[in-house]
Amino acid sequence: MTQTDIDQIHSLVHEGNKLAAVKLLKDTTHIGLKEAKDIIDDFFLGKLTDLEAAVAQAKTRYSDTYESISASSDPDGSNVHFFYQKGNHREEVTPGHPMWERVRNQYTCVWENAPEEVKKVREAFRKAVLEMEAKAGYTPKKNAQTTNRKEQASSDKRDTLFIKKSPFDFLKWYFYLFIAAAIVYMIYLFINH
Q1: Contact between 108 and 126 (Cβ < 8 Å)
Q2: What is the predicted pLDDT for the residue at 62?
Q3: Residues 6+ positions from 124 with CB-CB distance below 8 Å
Q4: Angle, helix 33-45 to helix 18-29, in steps of 10 degrees
Q5: What predicted TM-score, i.e. pTM, was given to this entire model?
Q6: CA distance 169 to 135
Q7: Model confidence over 92-112: pLDDT tens digits?
Q8: What's the pLDDT at 178?
Q9: Regions in the chain scoring below 70 on pLDDT
Q10: In degrees rounded to 5, what are phi and psi of residue 70?
């Protein structure tokens, strides 16, 4: 973060334009939105005077072993970008990047039992992965995960993210109701005799 950025953030906060100050701080320092908002709020309230120290403190909140893969897009599902973050370092991932296989594995698998809303959102990311690979001429590695969970017959893992309902679930509730009624009836008999 340069002195020009700091001066610009100071002027935006003093003008009362906190939203622009948060965006500028987030973009120039690569910290999270919540951290940037908290820093600007504290600066606006006078609790904070040194922006660089606050940014350094916010960046040290992440562990060096923290890893995540994430994606972002416009509300209509266009303009998709994939990111890899380790510790405080966040970078965009494209085909050919060392972490592309992990991105591919995460976003190309189909969740068959997922709610329709989740499937719809994930479909945009899946299409983006395939389009990016086609544009780059990328071919998946031999041991790469397949794009459909049914094709993973060799894997003993079950997809337990979404609970499947058994057709006999309603019988279970009738049984519980019967047991509860029997207990209430026994208590009634015990009290009256």
Answers
A1: yes
A2: 59
A3: 73, 77, 78, 80
A4: 130
A5: 0.45
A6: 48
A7: 999 988 899 999 988 888 777
A8: 95
A9: 60-65, 88, 142-168
A10: -140, 170
Neighbours of 82 (CB within 10 A): 26
What residues form DSSP beta bridges with 70?
83
Residues 78, 130: Cα–Cα separation, whole Å: 14
Beta bridge partners of 92: 83
CA angle 54, 58, 63 (to 5 degrees): 150
Q: Torsion angle, CA of 184/187/189/193, rounded to 10 degrees?
A: -160
Res 159: pLDDT? 53
Q: Which of 56, 51, 53, 58 is nearest to 7 (CA)?
A: 51
Helix, strand counts (H, E) of the chain: 7, 3
CA angle 140, 160, 110 (to 5 degrees): 35
Rounded CA separation 48/174 (Å): 61
> Between the CA of residue 1 and those of 8, 40, 115, what are the distances in Å?
11, 15, 43
Mean pLDDT in the chain?
81
With tokens 């953030």, the residue in question is 9
Strand partners, 83: 70, 92
- CA gap 63, 86 in Å, rounded: 8
User: How far, in Å, CA of 140 to CA of 109, rounded?
Assistant: 14
